[in-house]
């Protein structure tokens, strides 16, 4: 095993959680800082590029008003309430790991290499490596391969699309050279699910991932499921309820 995680670690999804949690909007410095204060071992951030080759923190491809992030300048994004990547990184304590969820764009296939999302991200990865644990996850296997080639000391996580079964996720991660596989909680089974023909047990799934030499994480289980995943040996969970998950994994007296 690669030893990226000390099972089972808690990763704050977009900071303290998706949307607005306790008054903190996702993908903002305040949300990142609060996730760390709530006990997150890592914080997951979403990164996108702008029209003038900056990186901003945002999950969706477009703003609520329909404007596409990659068509906007960094200044326009800031005016719309987004934060630059460097502002988010500055809010994270050094002892909190960084999970960078990279959102590539169609233009990455045709723009000159220097303008592509991965090229803009590489200097940040090299800098953050000097002060904290870092890994990169993405739906884009090409980006993961580029990170592996350019900064091989940064682990990568293959993140198949929502509800993609572990049957293809685990061999897919192995085939793309990623040491981590990330599987949506709904693909693994959540509390209240009925029987699902063809779905392997959680324990068997985790065991197969480990036998393949992979670490396995899941997004976004509720605390009750996170505790069940931890009992099965899962390495990390990306969650929207950081304090609830921390309490579920580390119950007090």
Descriptive notes:
By secondary structure, the protein is an alpha/beta fold. It has ten helices and twelve strands. The protein has an eight-stranded parallel β-barrel, surrounded by seven helices. A two-stranded antiparallel ribbon has the order 2-3. Helix 9 packs parallel to helix 10 (242-249). It starts with 8 loop residues before the first strand and ends with a helix.
A few lines on this structure:
With 253 residues, the chain is of the alpha/beta class. It has ten helices and twelve strands.
Portion in helices: 25-40%
The oligomeric status of these chains comes to single chain
Largest sheet: 8 strands, parallel, barrel
Helix-strand pattern? EEEHEEHEHEHEHEHEHHEHEH
Can you count the beta strands? 12
The poorly predicted ranges are none
Please identify the structural class as seen in this structure: alpha/beta
Layout: helices, strands, pairs:
Elements: E1 9-12, E2 20-21, E3 24-25, H1 29-37, E4 42-49, E5 55-57, H2 74-79, E6 83-84, H3 85-90, E7 97-102, H4 117-129, E8 134-138, H5 141-150, E9 156-158, H6 166-175, E10 180-184, H7 185-188, H8 202-211, E11 215-219, H9 223-231, E12 236-239, H10 242-249
Parallel strand pairs: 1-4, 1-12, 4-7, 7-8, 8-9, 9-10, 10-11, 11-12
Antiparallel strand pairs: 2-3, 4-5, 5-6
Helix pairs in contact: 9-10
């Amino acid at each position: 095993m690669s030893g990226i995680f000390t099972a089972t670690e808690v990763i704050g999804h977009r900071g303290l959680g998706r949307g607005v949690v306790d008054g903190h909007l996702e993908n903002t410095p305040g949300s990142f800082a609060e996730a760390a204060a709530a006990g997150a071992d890592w914080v997951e951030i979403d990164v996108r590029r702008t029209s003038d080759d900056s990186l901003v923190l945002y999950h969706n491809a477009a703003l609520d008003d329909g404007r596409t992030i990659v068509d906007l300048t960094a200044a326009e994004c800031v005016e719309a309430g987004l934060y630059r990547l460097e502002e988010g990184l500055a809010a994270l304590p050094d002892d909190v790991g960084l999970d960078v969820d990279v959102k590539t764009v169609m233009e990455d296939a045709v723009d000159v290499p220097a303008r592509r999302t991965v090229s803009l991200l590489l200097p940040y990865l090299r800098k953050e490596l000097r002060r904290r644990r870092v890994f990169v996850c993405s739906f884009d296997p090409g980006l993961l391969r580029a990170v592996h080639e350019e900064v091989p000391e940064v682990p990568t996580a293959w993140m198949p699309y929502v509800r993609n079964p572990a049957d293809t996720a685990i061999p897919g991660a192995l085939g793309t050279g990623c040491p981590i596989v990330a599987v949506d909680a709904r693909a693994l089974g959540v509390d209240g699910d009925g029987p699902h023909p063809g779905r392997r047990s959680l324990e068997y799934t985790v065991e197969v991932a480990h036998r393949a030499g992979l670490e396995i994480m899941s997004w976004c289980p509720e605390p009750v499921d996170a505790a069940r995943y931890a009992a099965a040996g899962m390495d990390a969970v990306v969650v929207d309820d950081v304090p609830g998950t921390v309490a579920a994994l580390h119950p007090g007296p």
